[in-house]
Amino acid sequence: MLPKKATRKTPLSPEQKKENKLISGIRITVEHAIAGIKRLGCMTQSLRNRRPFRR
Protein backbone atom coordinates (compact mmCIF):
# COMPACT_ATOMS: atom_id res chain seq x y z
CA MET A 1 0.00 0.00 0.00
CA LEU A 2 1.38 3.38 -0.97
CA PRO A 3 0.60 6.72 0.66
CA LYS A 4 -1.29 9.36 -1.31
CA LYS A 5 0.74 12.19 -2.81
CA ALA A 6 -0.28 15.82 -2.93
CA THR A 7 0.29 18.04 -5.93
CA ARG A 8 0.44 21.80 -6.14
CA LYS A 9 -3.10 21.98 -7.48
CA THR A 10 -4.65 19.37 -5.20
CA PRO A 11 -3.46 19.29 -1.59
CA LEU A 12 -4.32 16.30 0.57
CA SER A 13 -7.66 16.23 2.34
CA PRO A 14 -7.74 15.59 6.11
CA GLU A 15 -8.98 12.05 5.43
CA GLN A 16 -6.05 11.36 3.08
CA LYS A 17 -3.62 12.71 5.68
CA LYS A 18 -5.14 10.39 8.29
CA GLU A 19 -4.79 7.44 5.90
CA ASN A 20 -1.14 8.34 5.25
CA LYS A 21 -0.50 8.38 9.01
CA LEU A 22 -1.99 4.90 9.35
CA ILE A 23 0.09 3.56 6.45
CA SER A 24 3.28 5.10 7.84
CA GLY A 25 2.64 3.57 11.27
CA ILE A 26 2.30 0.10 9.78
CA ARG A 27 5.28 0.65 7.53
CA ILE A 28 7.66 1.66 10.32
CA THR A 29 6.72 -1.43 12.33
CA VAL A 30 7.53 -3.67 9.38
CA GLU A 31 10.75 -1.78 8.62
CA HIS A 32 11.94 -2.17 12.23
CA ALA A 33 11.19 -5.91 12.15
CA ILE A 34 13.18 -6.36 8.94
CA ALA A 35 16.07 -4.33 10.40
CA GLY A 36 16.09 -6.54 13.51
CA ILE A 37 16.29 -9.68 11.39
CA LYS A 38 19.16 -8.21 9.39
CA ARG A 39 20.97 -7.00 12.51
CA LEU A 40 20.86 -10.41 14.15
CA GLY A 41 21.80 -12.20 10.95
CA CYS A 42 19.04 -14.77 11.45
CA MET A 43 18.37 -15.29 7.79
CA THR A 44 21.97 -15.59 6.60
CA GLN A 45 23.03 -18.58 8.69
CA SER A 46 22.18 -22.16 7.90
CA LEU A 47 20.61 -24.49 10.46
CA ARG A 48 23.12 -26.79 12.13
CA ASN A 49 22.74 -30.07 13.99
CA ARG A 50 19.52 -30.92 12.23
CA ARG A 51 18.16 -34.37 12.88
CA PRO A 52 15.53 -36.10 10.80
CA PHE A 53 12.05 -35.87 12.24
CA ARG A 54 10.77 -39.12 13.78
CA ARG A 55 7.45 -39.89 15.39
Please give the structural blueprint:
Blueprint: H1 14-40
Structure, described:
The chain has 55 residues and is mainly alpha-helical. Helix content is 49%, strand content 0%. The chain is built from 1 helix and no strands. The N and C termini lie far apart (43 Å).
Percent strand equals: under 5%
Q: N-to-C SSE series? A: H
What is the typical, i.e. mean, pLDDT? 89
Quick one: how many beta strands? 0
- Shape designation: rod-shaped
Kindly, what is the distance between the CA atoms of the first and last residues, rounded to a whole number of angstroms? 43 Å
What is the helix content?
40-55%
What Rg is obtained from the alpha carbons, in whole angstroms?
21 Å
Spans of at least 5 consecutive residues whose pLDDT stays below 50 are none
What is the count of helical runs? 1
Structural class: mainly alpha
**What can be said about the biggest beta sheet?**
none
What is the oligomeric state here?
A: single chain
Brief account:
One of its GO terms (molecular function) is metal ion binding. It comes from Candidatus Regiella insecticola. With 55 residues, the chain is mainly alpha-helical.
